[in-house]
Amino acid sequence: MHGLDPSQGSVLPDSGFTLPQLQGSNLLEHFHRIGSETAQPWLDLAKSFVHTILPPQPDHWEIQSGWTKYYHHED
Question: Which residue ranges in the chain fall short of pLDDT 50?
Answer without folding.
Answer: none
